[in-house]
Amino acid sequence: MGIADVVIGASAWLSEAHGVERAPHIIDLLAEMINLAETCWACSLSCALLGQPTPSGAYVVDPLMANVTKLNITRFTYEWMRLAQDVAGGLIITLPSERDYRNPELRGYMDKYFQGKPGFSAEQRMRMMRLVEALAVGAGLPEALHGAGSPQAQKIMISRRGRVEEKKELARVIAGLEEDELYRRIWS
User: Fold this and answer.
1) pLDDT at 102
2) Who has the most CB within 10 Å: 63, 73, 114, 142?
3) How buried is 187 (Cβ within 10 angstroms: 0-12 exposed, 13-18 middle, 19+ buried)?
């Protein structure tokens, strides 16, 4: 399982603890998180599927799809983490510390005011909030941006391997700017 799976699971759990799991906007946020994560997974699969064996027998992934995957990861991680923050709510920033929770003078108030819907204790809810905070607000996000190399380097490789000239030729033929046999049959 990847980080996206964990943050999606934590967000879904929190939506239940908050009692809003059936709210249309929450369903939409979770679906968007899943869409982004699965898009990255699909790109990873295509990167491998389109790869080629080398003469030595080693296998090299498709470089265009590898860079598309890496660029999506640098963008989509921030987005699914932003969505996780939205589902979690403002408590991930204002939540008292565990030290405060362990203080006998404060714990009763926290148990009363931080409890979720029935079946979700304040402590459980606070622990899950801390998990989302660590993943979605913490220091791991810069790694998501630069862990696979610079996004600008990925864009350079994508533009080099994107077969733009072939795509321009295809557009010229379809638009009728190239007089080939098909064009003459259609427009004659």
Assistant:
1) 95
2) 73
3) exposed
